[in-house]
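Appendix B, Record 12. Input sequence as logged:
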Amino acid sequence: MENPFDLAQQAAESVLSLMNARPQVAVVLGSGWAAAADGLGSISAQTPLSSLPGVPEPTVQGHSGLLTLVDVSGIPTLLIGGRNHLYEGHPVATVVHTVRAAVLAGCSTVVLTNAAGSLVPENGPGTPVLLSDQLNLTGHSPMAGQGPPEGFPGRFCDVTNLYSPRLRAAIHDADPTIPEGVYAGMLGGAYETPAEIRMLRTLGADLVGMSTVLESIAAHHLGAEVIGVSLVTNMAAGMGGELSHGEVLEVAQTSTERIVDLIGTIIRSA
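Logged structural output:
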């Protein structure tokens, strides 16, 4: 079985070849964030994500499936239009593969976006929330399995400051009103039960979703500065109405202008 780090290196070389440039920032566009790609900057290159070695085509509605290089105020930025999830049956190495490839291609900053349920009544649908920390409750880790080969960082990494304090401070300087929260990453497929939400609240979670927590560890391990942003698209189970993916996409669409501005601020702060 091929070492996942070696496969990520192959994908990184494909990124450099297909984009014909070395990106500095990578932005993973989660559910409902695809519209941000249209307003960030001029497109320099674009290709299907599945054209990279080891990357299956994203299947979740609301993901474009495109890898796009854009110029954001002179900063070459790689927009990753979707992700693969554990609940789709993918192994962890596949879930984090594109992020690893982006870092190995030169991205020193990784911006992880997602749609999330809120456990905080004040942070209702349409609110962007910076991630201050996370609870990885997926039962998986990108650091398990085959270890990194020679030339890569060692197996164990310190995740005390997983989400960059420097970038979070810069974003708060630009927008002091944006809240922060702890993101609970679940295996997914099914939304959480009200009992699970009560448990998560006890554990200190402010947000809940089905992605991000594995990618953040993988990017941090390779030395990237990581920032995470959740767009609240619904209140968590037991705090609002019936949950659906359609609601997620609808709320995201109405929040396009604000999330484009926020992503632009993050990139310029990198």
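The CA atoms of residues 21 and 107 lie 11 Å apart.
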